[in-house]
Amino acid sequence: MDPKSQRVKLNDGHFIPVLGFGTYAPPEVAKKEALEFTPFAIEVGFRHIDCAHAYQNEEEIGQAIQSKIADGTVKREDIFCTSKLWLTSLRPELVRPALEKSLKNLQLDYVDLYIMHYPMALKPGEELSRKDENGKLIFDSVDFCRTWEALEKCKDAGLTKSIGVSNFNHKQLEKILNKLGLKYKPVCNQVECHPYLNQSKLLDFCKSHEIVLVAYAALGSQRVKEWVNPNHPVLLEDPVLSAIAQKHKKTAALVALRYQIQRGVVVLAKGNNKKWIKENMQVFDFELTPEDMKAVDGLNRNIRYYEFHVWILYH
């Protein structure tokens, strides 16, 4: 990590800020929150904005970014913007049009990172999920290695600086890495990762292939009740995290974020509260001791907060 600029180098030579601002919000508030909180996040110092077509708020995020460029807070090159290819556009011929649509919504000439949202395909169409008459999702048979080749072409065309994946396990990553004629390795794999699901094996695998692990749900998630198991313990109430937080005079959330950064993971922090968004920038003001890191490592219980099958979220 380059501590001065708080970035890590990707395997294609570009740099990614280690702390990102996550922009997913429940559909009923996604647009409003994007307009309200994205400009604020940029004002307090966030330079990495994580978006996706499926979040249905890229237009609002584009307006927010442009407003901060217009008022001189940032230049385009200061912002690292990620977008994601949705499951209905995994056919190779649909990849570039999907990226171009996101670019148009974001009002950008290029994104810094474009990633495959999931290693599975749904039938193409305007809706996020096509269903048959019985309400069952209609899957599409697409080899995601062909999708990857289309992503490589988008990189060559300058529409995205880097390309990566999300929600891939090590076998799916290996499929791309061992693909004949591979031109670019994935620069990252974005997955659920927090002290109760520390993904240590996947992290080791990714590191061994110079793939950066990007953590979402880094603070656990109690936010969308329909698809988060209410019986799971609340991560930020964990006594070990609380004790470490007290020792450093920080919050449990900051300890959870700092833990990821110190183990070489890029971490996304969502925010629907200005106080928390501002507070998240304090992650660079302190350091966890080796004993703290060991204690947080010991919290792993392989708990997934996001137990949903993807179709539940976007039904």
TrEMBL record:
<dbReference type="InterPro" id="IPR036812">
    <property type="entry name" value="NAD(P)_OxRdtase_dom_sf"/>
</dbReference>
<feature type="domain" description="NADP-dependent oxidoreductase">
    <location>
        <begin position="19"/>
        <end position="300"/>
    </location>
</feature>
<dbReference type="GO" id="GO:0004032">
    <property type="term" value="F:aldose reductase (NADPH) activity"/>
</dbReference>
<dbReference type="InterPro" id="IPR018170">
    <property type="entry name" value="Aldo/ket_reductase_CS"/>
</dbReference>
<feature type="site" description="Lowers pKa of active site Tyr">
    <location>
        <position position="84"/>
    </location>
</feature>
<dbReference type="GO" id="GO:0044598">
    <property type="term" value="P:doxorubicin metabolic process"/>
</dbReference>
<feature type="binding site">
    <location>
        <position position="117"/>
    </location>
    <ligand>
        <name>substrate</name>
    </ligand>
</feature>
<dbReference type="InterPro" id="IPR020471">
    <property type="entry name" value="AKR"/>
</dbReference>
<dbReference type="GO" id="GO:0047086">
    <property type="term" value="F:ketosteroid monooxygenase activity"/>
</dbReference>
<dbReference type="GO" id="GO:0044597">
    <property type="term" value="P:daunorubicin metabolic process"/>
</dbReference>
<dbReference type="GO" id="GO:0032052">
    <property type="term" value="F:bile acid binding"/>
</dbReference>
<dbReference type="GO" id="GO:0006693">
    <property type="term" value="P:prostaglandin metabolic process"/>
</dbReference>
<dbReference type="GO" id="GO:0047023">
    <property type="term" value="F:androsterone dehydrogenase [NAD(P)+] activity"/>
</dbReference>
<dbReference type="InterPro" id="IPR023210">
    <property type="entry name" value="NADP_OxRdtase_dom"/>
</dbReference>
<comment type="similarity">
    <text>Belongs to the aldo/keto reductase family.</text>
</comment>
<dbReference type="InterPro" id="IPR044482">
    <property type="entry name" value="AKR1C"/>
</dbReference>
<keyword id="KW-0560">Oxidoreductase</keyword>
<dbReference type="GO" id="GO:0005829">
    <property type="term" value="C:cytosol"/>
</dbReference>
<dbReference type="Pfam" id="PF00248">
    <property type="entry name" value="Aldo_ket_red"/>
</dbReference>
<dbReference type="GO" id="GO:0042448">
    <property type="term" value="P:progesterone metabolic process"/>
</dbReference>
<protein>
    <recommendedName>
        <fullName>NADP-dependent oxidoreductase domain-containing protein</fullName>
    </recommendedName>
</protein>
<feature type="active site" description="Proton donor">
    <location>
        <position position="55"/>
    </location>
</feature>
<keyword id="KW-0521">NADP</keyword>
